[in-house]
Design goal:
six-stranded antiparallel beta sheet; globular; 24 strands; eleven-stranded mixed beta sheet; mainly beta
Length: 350
């Protein structure tokens, strides 16, 4: 993505289309008239008056979400701006609105399909409205979209949903131009880095890679030691919620962020089974998966009393130490649990 690009991304669901629409610059045909405007919600203040005396008692405060207002111009004076190509790919499960070859060579092909600046403009506004409806998201509270904005050579994302959509004056629609105001509301007030980070821990021995590619070492000797601790390098400005996936076999797995918190599950995982403890604000859950990858339902009731609430499972910026412990159920030194701790760095603005 180039500076000035915006990208709205979300998955398709059943027969409902998803989105992979890049816009924001003049070249896209749907461009920003002004810089994206960010508004932060008023924090919820927990202050209480002190009865019979001066002053107040400071309480627990909560930060609310951010929202983005986009003033867009839909411009089809020279070329169509509908982002699907070729037309016979419009149908079918898994399709994404906006997924098209971005090679400028295709623009004349779109123009050769016929139409006028007015018809192209009407179609482009309808496409943008369809993207902003987000039909594949609205039926489930855990589904969110990512609004990605690139500036100063870096891309950062807000996770939430498209909201208000307002078509402005159609005075120049016949000439191929219509202004639009579109809003996006995020789940929280964090702007996430474009790169997902992760660290792994494991408590079993892995065989060393062959020093001669294509000619394995014989006999294979497990020379890699177990990795029960790892350093998490959390960058950014704000604390972030991680997602922790634990793979079996093991019993009573426990992941500790030393000096902060420890999450433990009172259950047994067989080889191939896993549990994901996802503390991210848009998808907080504790779900077990079978060896085939199918969901076996929530196991939030297996969290021990000493485990923190998912909302309190945050990783502050800095270098943190993670530790894995468990009751072993492996029958050989090459069997044991593996843990993946994943997160995205969080920032206070674009």
């Amino acid at each position: 993505m180039a500076d000035g690009d915006l990208r709205l991304v979300y998955s398709s669901y059943n027969s409902l289309p998803g989105s992979d629409l890049t816009f924001g610059r003049v070249e896209s045909g749907i461009y920003c008239l002004t810089k994206p405007s960010v508004t932060f919600g008023d924090p919820e203040i927990g202050d209480q008056d002190l009865p019979g005396e001066d002053g107040v008692r400071m309480g627990r405060d909560y930060q609310r979400s951010a929202s983005v207002t986009l003033e867009l111009g839909v411009d089809t004076v020279d070329y169509p701006a509908v982002r699907w190509y070729p037309p016979n790919m419009l149908g079918g499960a898994g399709r994404l609105i906006g997924s098209w070859p971005k090679n400028p060579m295709f623009l004349p092909l779109l123009k050769s399909a016929g139409g006028t600046p007015e018809s192209w403009n009407v179609d482009a506004v309808a496409m943008l409205r369809q993207v902003w409806r987000a039909d594949s998201l609205r039926g489930n509270p855990s589904r969110v979209a990512a609004l990605v904005y690139t500036r100063a050579g870096r891309s950062r994302s807000l996770y939430g949903r498209p909201r208000n959509f307002e078509i402005g004056s159609e005075k120049f629609t016949a000439q191929g131009y219509t202004p639009v105001i579109a809003k996006f509301t995020a789940v929280d007030d964090r702007f996430y880095g474009s790169t997902a980070k992760q660290e792994e821990l494991w408590d079993y021995y892995r065989p060393a890679p062959s020093p001669r590619p294509g000619r394995p070492t014989w006999p294979p000797v497990p020379t890699w030691e177990a990795k029960r601790t790892a350093t998490l390098g959390v960058a950014g400005d704000l604390p972030v919620h991680p997602s922790i996936t634990i793979y079996g076999p093991c019993t009573n797995p426990k992941v500790t962020i030393i000096g902060l918190w420890a999450v433990q599950l009172a259950l047994t995982l067989k080889a191939g089974e896993s549990v994901t403890v996802n503390a991210q604000p848009w998808a907080r859950h504790v779900i077990k998966y079978t060896s085939t990858g199918a969901s076996a339902g929530s196991v939030a009731d297996k969290l021990t009393r000493a485990s923190p609430r998912l909302a309190a499972m945050t990783l502050p910026p800095g270098r943190l130490q993670a530790q894995l412990s468990h009751s072993s159920t492996g029958t050989t030194p090459r069997q044991g649990p593996r843990v993946v701790i994943a997160w995205r760095d969080a920032f206070g603005s674009w």
